[in-house]
Amino acid sequence: MNSSLRLIATGGTFDKIYLPQNGLLGFTETCLPALLAQARLEPQTTLEVAMLVDSLDMTPAQRAQLVARCQSASESQLVIIHGTDTMIESAGAIAQALASEGAQRTIVLTGAMVPARIEGSDALFNLGFALAAARLLPGGVWIAMHGTIWPWDGVQKNRSAGRFEARERSLL
What we know:
By secondary structure, this protein is α/β, with parallel strands linked by helices. It has helices spanning 32-39, 60-72, 87-101, 123-136; strands spanning 2-11, 17-19, 24-26, 46-53, 75-81, 106-110, 140-145, 148-151, 155-158, 163-166. The chain has a single domain (2-157), classed as L-asparaginase, N-terminal domain (Rossmann fold). The radius of gyration is 15 Å and the shape is globular.
């Protein structure tokens, strides 16, 4: 396993655009090559477009495909662009697979509440933050959103507030 970094795109709000044909948000192609060029990353990051789907529409087969891509990646550091609604579910599937194979990878999932192509988006900040986190964090599966990092099983999405926050833990 090499120590370079791989970026895997799955879609989510991050990559959505306005489609005037039907007046909805949807997908055509990822905006990540342009954002990576703008960021001037050194060393270069490998970009893999796994799929472009809304995470609420991600099927179990697509989630399994994402897990398989993580398992087969030669890099030890991965950043996954993912829709925020089921990001934690995918992170759990990835964590379970990595635990069973004993791999020591650092995998960071991030996304956006506003599409990257829309002014005022949080996408570029979250991307840069996740890339830095993947290079600095120890092995494990992490969620990085809005300047905060959580272990995948220590976070929840607060839909009404439009943010991620620490998950309340039971004392039992």
